[in-house]
Automatic annotation (TrEMBL):
Keywords, comma-separated and alphabetical: Apoplast, Copper, Glycoprotein, Lignin degradation, Metal-binding, Oxidoreductase, Repeat, Secreted, Signal
Signal peptide segment: 1-21
Organism per entry: Cucumis melo var. makuwa
Name of the molecule in the record: Laccase
CDD domains named among the record's database cross-references: CuRO_1_LCC_plant, CuRO_2_LCC_plant, CuRO_3_LCC_plant
Length: 574
């Protein structure tokens, strides 16, 4: 006997409804096309042909949920080689999609294309993407926002609104020419002409007022600000006039909430903060300017601003009425390291975390600058660093050199000799008073393409030790393919006897970039559970150019789930 038609209809409806509910909780795949192209962009009264993604500056914001997959087809219509890096994405087993040129892929040549495919696993918060080739990331960057899985919520009350503020640097020149000039002369590159929020310098710069970024808020609201330091070469302070900020996340990991009136972000770092509309309805400046820890080094001393605008604030500049200027915040002095230290010491994971305690690889890396003596066949115009030298930089006295005809990952995977050697030193080849008065004979590192080999699953500790060679400086050290725990930071030379006692093995913050204190050190730990070739470098781009980098070569484990995937068929070749 046939069932009445209404019963069929009901069954079909139930099926549909459950399918809809299922698909809600299901990870999604997001497809995007990134066209790399020259685009006229006018800033500081002048137009430059900037390299952009899809004609947008900054580039498109990607918004996904934890667990989703991104497929981004990058088409290079610019005249430069390009690659895109997904800063902070773990790229579990998908190292071919990481992006640093000559590390995990050959560059996408003009006219070429490459499709990056990867799945985000267990990361929530704010990351970003940027070009990882030459200095293209000056204009080729954007936000990558990872929301909790569908049905999951933030570990804090749902914000009324969210806004992303990408801090950047603008040159009133072609950034590639700025780099070329520095490479030719051996001197430090010209500093940028403006800092920016979402590509806009803001009210305090010429020809910039009408495009100043407005961030809306209303009385009684609590909003989420996602702050990213996408600047090329400058650590930045960030603050909002009259408002306290509650830090709830950094580098796409949640933190134990704490309040502060100022943030400091090294390039590469992100910080998520809550801000409450609890002040007199008005307009308040959001401002950022340099934290400059290096001595006697030129830097841009200007301030970028956006405006926090209460919806109920009296209208600003009506024709004929006097303009009410937004309220300007107090910013720390350029060299205010005490504020930076107080801020970075507040970071904790929200709860106890599984920090590795039995360490297989106990590493000690110096990070710092150097000077190369002028090579014999060079003209004086090519040696315009201090006292007729050329600037360089190194880790453990090795100044990192990228290969030029194959990627390190390909060479490592395919056992191609002569590209990368696995003899990167576990310790400084010469021990010296790293933060003291260093002998001039230790200023010149050795160039090389050296990796440090790690067994799958090994537990790693790295002490990152700043040196005072040329000048001490706060170096934002970024590791690809991993998040790490920052278990301690301090000043002077790391001393295992007394500093081991300071390790936080309970609830240290999990990050992908650590701002190593100027004239000090930081200790990080991670488990090498992601096979591939992973660059660790200073995120001040000028320092990568000079060689402040190394690579970890992480072996496959057992079986395909512990091995890197096969390279995609469209992986660019050199
Ligand atoms: Cu955001 Cu290798 O960097």
């Amino acid at each position: 006997m046939a069932a009445p038609p209404s019963l069929y209809l009901f069954a079909i409806l139930v099926l549909f409804a459950s399918a809809a509910a299922l698909s809600l909780a299901h990870p999604q795949t997001h497809r995007h096309q990134f066209i790399i192209q020259a685009t006229p962009v006018k800033r500081l009264c002048k137009t430059h042909n900037a390299i952009t993604v899809n004609g947008q500056f900054p580039g498109p914001t990607l918004e996904i949920n934890n667990g989703d997959t991104l497929i981004v087809n990058v088409i290079n219509k610019a005249k430069y080689n390009v690659t895109i890096h997904w800063h902070g994405i773990r790229q579990l087993r998908t190292g071919w999609a990481d992006g640093p040129e000559f590390v995990t892929q050959c560059p996408i040549r003009p006219g070429g294309s490459y499709t990056y495919r990867f799945t985000v696993q267990g990361q929530e918060g704010t990351l970003w993407w940027h070009a990882h080739s030459s200095w293209l990331r000056a204009t080729v960057y954007g936000a990558l926002i990872i929301h909790p899985k569908e049905g999951d919520s933030y570990p804090f009350p749902k914000p009324n609104r969210e806004a992303t503020l990408l801090m950047g640097e603008w040159w009133d020149a072609n950034p590639i020419d700025v780099l070329r000039q520095a490479t030719r002369t051996g001197a430090a590159p010209n500093v940028s002409d403006a800092y920016t929020f979402n590509g806009q310098p803001g009210d305090l710069y010429k020809c910039s007022s009408k495009d100043t970024i407005i961030v809306p808020i209303d009385s009684g609201e609590t909003n989420l600000l996602r702050v990213v330091n996408s600047a090329l070469n400058q650590a930045l302070f960030f603050t909002v006039a009259n408002h306290k900020l509650t830090v709830v996340g950094a580098d796409a990991s949640y933190t134990k909430p704490f309040t502060t009136s100022v943030l400091m972000l090294g390039p590469g770092q992100t910080t998520d903060v809550l801000i409450s509309g609890n002040q007199v309805p008005a307009r308040y400046y959001i401002a950022a300017r340099a934290y400059q820890s290096a001595q006697n080094a030129p830097f841009g001393n200007t301030t970028t601003t956006a405006i926090l605008n209460y919806k109920s604030a009296p209208c600003p500049a009506k024709k004929g009425s006097p303009t009410i200027k937004p309220i300007m915040p107090f910013l720390p002095a350029f060299n205010d390291t005490a504020t930076v230290t107080a801020f970075s010491r507040k970071f904790r994971s929200p709860r106890p975390v599984p920090v590795p305690t039995k360490i297989d690889e106990n590493l000690f890396f110096t990070v710092g600058l150097g000077l190369n003596n002028c090579p014999r066949n060079f003209k004086p115009s090519q040696c315009q660093g201090p006292n007729g030298t050329r600037f360089t930089a190194s880790m453990n006295n090795v100044s990192f050199v990228l290969p030029s005809n194959i990627s390190i990952l390909q060479a490592f995977q395919q056992g191609i000799p002569g590209v990368v050697t696995s003899d990167f030193p576990a310790n400084p080849p010469v021990k010296f008073d790293y933060t003291g008065n260093v002998s001039r004979s230790l200023f010149q590192p050795v160039p090389g393409t050296k990796g440090y080999r790690l067994k799958y699953g090994s537990t790693v500790q790295v002490v990152l030790q700043d040196t005072s060679i040329v000048t001490p400086e706060n170096h934002p050290i970024h590791l690809h393919g991993y998040d790490f725990y920052i278990i301690a930071e301090g000043f002077g030379n790391f001393d295992p006897k007394k500093d081991t006692k300071k390790f936080n093995l309970v609830d240290p913050p999990l990050r992908n970039t650590v701002a190593v204190p100027v004239n000090g050190w930081a200790v990080i730990r991670f488990v090498a559970d992601n096979p591939g070739a992973w660059i660790m470098h200073c995120h001040l781009d000028v320092h990568i150019t000079w060689g402040l980098a190394m690579v970890f070569l992480v072996d496959n484990g057992v079986g395909h789930l512990q091995s890197i995937e096969a390279p995609p068929p469209d992986l660019p070749i050199c």
